[in-house]
Each structure stands twice: as C-alpha cells, then as structure tokens.
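Title: Comparing notes on inverse folding

I've been comparing how different people in this forum approach sequence design from structure. To keep things fair, I'm posting one structure and asking everyone to reply with a full sequence. Here's the target:
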C-alpha cells in the first residue's frame, strides 16, 4: 500500500473517530452551481433553526447544528451500538470564491439552503 493511500485511509478514520467522540454526524450536502451563485443544500433532521451556526469565508463553508434531542442508530455495527448522536458538523470547500456579504440562508422542513453569490472575478481589458 502506498504512503498516500495509507494517509488517505488514516484521514478518513480520524474524521470518523472525531465524529464518534463528539457525538457528531456529517449531514448530507449538495452544492449546485447556478451560474452567478452557488446553492448549498444540507439535510438537518431533528434540528431547529435557532440551533444552526453557519461560518463562511470566500472558499469555505462550515455548518454546525445541534439536534433538539439526541438520536441513536440501533442497526449499526457493534462499535457504534448505543452511541447517541447530538449534532451535525460539515466543512465544505467551495468550488468558486463567493461574496460573503451577500450570502443568504433559509431553513424549512429540516433542509438548510444557503445561497452564495459568486465573487466577481477580475477581468482583463485589452488596450486599443
């Protein structure tokens, strides 16, 4: 096994272990490029709007959300049996730089949607 492959596997394990230690799940997320803006959707069941925190830079989006009640998976393997999950956490690297001042978010029926207008790129002007 190559060193890079080993490090990739180790990184995945560390993420998984961190999630178990902190009783944290990773929400399902989808980034859609709509031309002039990105639309990020995150599935956050068992969460209320007041318990969601969103942090944003030009190229990173972080979502933290606390569940109103903890949730336990009963059908997972022996290692995870009995662990109650209490929150969601996700960091997304955005495919385009965004204008953080114009970002908007809404939360309905367990789905968080974040609209991120793209930052206007520099344009070169040809001299006549």
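Reply #1:
Here's my take.
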């Amino acid at each position: 096994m190559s060193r890079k492959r080993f490090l990739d596997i180790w990184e995945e394990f560390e993420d998984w272990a961190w999630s178990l230690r902190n009783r944290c799940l990773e929400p399902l997320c989808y980034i859609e490029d709509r031309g002039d803006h990105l639309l990020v959707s995150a599935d956050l069941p068992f969460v209320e709007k007041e318990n969601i925190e969103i942090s944003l830079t030009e190229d990173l989006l972080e979502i933290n959300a606390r569940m109103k009640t903890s949730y336990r998976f009963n059908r997972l393997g022996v290692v995870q049996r009995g662990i109650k999950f209490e929150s969601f956490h996700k960091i997304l690297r955005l495919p385009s730089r965004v204008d953080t001042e114009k970002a908007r978010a809404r939360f309905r029926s367990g789905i968080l949607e974040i609209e991120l207008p793209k930052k206007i790129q520099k344009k070169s002007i040809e001299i006549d």
